Amino acid sequence: MSNMTFVPRKVFFTNGVGRHRNELESFELALRDASIEKYNLVTVSSIHPAGCEIVNPAAGALELTPGQVVFCVMARASTNEPNRLVGAGIGLAVPAAGDHYGYLSEHHGYGMTKLKLSDYVEDMAATMLATTLGIEFDPDSAYDERREVYKMSGKIVQTRACVQTAAGDKEGRWTTVVASAVFLM
């Protein structure tokens, strides 16, 4: 038996929203909006491999085949409550040292604006990476303060967020949001 390793070479970020009278179909429509409905998605935990190139979704899709098993980090949330704010987000933190792994974070929930959710998932990813890199910071300080510490350390080179928020359908249909980091082998 050969020793197979599954280390992603590339990743792309995508998000979407779907609305339907059935929850499952609203999820399908959210995946369609994110252009990832045609793959067999397998969720994994949140490590961004060293050297994993970030590509745009269109370029990433060119490397995939409908029906293919595809690994991803996904956040997903649904509501059928009219006007309830629902959100899903993925954060990324990439280290400056090219031989060290980075972190992806995911969060889903209710009541967070797009900006608040973006900051939240970006903060989680950056904080997880900072702790593995030995960056000293006050965990109780505001993210804006910690972000400056992370940048000044020179050890974290990039952070970003991919989020989707939506207000629950006013007629009570299911509203589902997804955000995903999709890996390419």
List its salient traits:
Pyruvoyl-Dependent Histidine Decarboxylase, Chain B, 185 residues, 9 strands, 4 helices
Give structural notes.
The protein is of the alpha+beta class. It has a single domain (10-184), classed as Pyruvoyl-Dependent Histidine Decarboxylase, Chain B (3-Layer(bba) Sandwich), CATH 3.50.20.10. Helices cover 25% and strands 39% of the residues. It contains four helices and nine strands. The strands form two sheets. It has a five-stranded mixed β-sheet with strand order 2-5-9-1-4. The chain has a four-stranded antiparallel β-sheet with strand order 3-7-6-8, covered by helices on one side. A hairpin with a 6-residue loop joins strand 6 (85-95) and strand 7 (102-110). The longest helix has 20 residues, at 114-133. The two termini are 20 Å apart.
CATH superfamily: Pyruvoyl-Dependent Histidine Decarboxylase, subunit B
Q: What is the CATH domain class?
A: Alpha Beta
- Indicate the structural class: alpha+beta
**Number of helical runs?**
4
Q: What global shape is seen?
A: flat
Strand content: 35-45%
Rg estimate, integer Å = 17 Å
CATH architecture: 3-Layer(bba) Sandwich
How does the SSE layout of this entry go?
Blueprint: E1 10-20, H1 23-33, E2 40-43, E3 47-48, E4 53-54, H2 57-61, E5 69-79, E6 85-95, E7 102-110, H3 114-133, H4 143-153, E8 156-167, E9 174-184
Parallel strand pairs: 1-4, 2-5
Antiparallel strand pairs: 1-9, 3-7, 5-9, 6-7, 6-8
Helix pairs in contact: 3-4
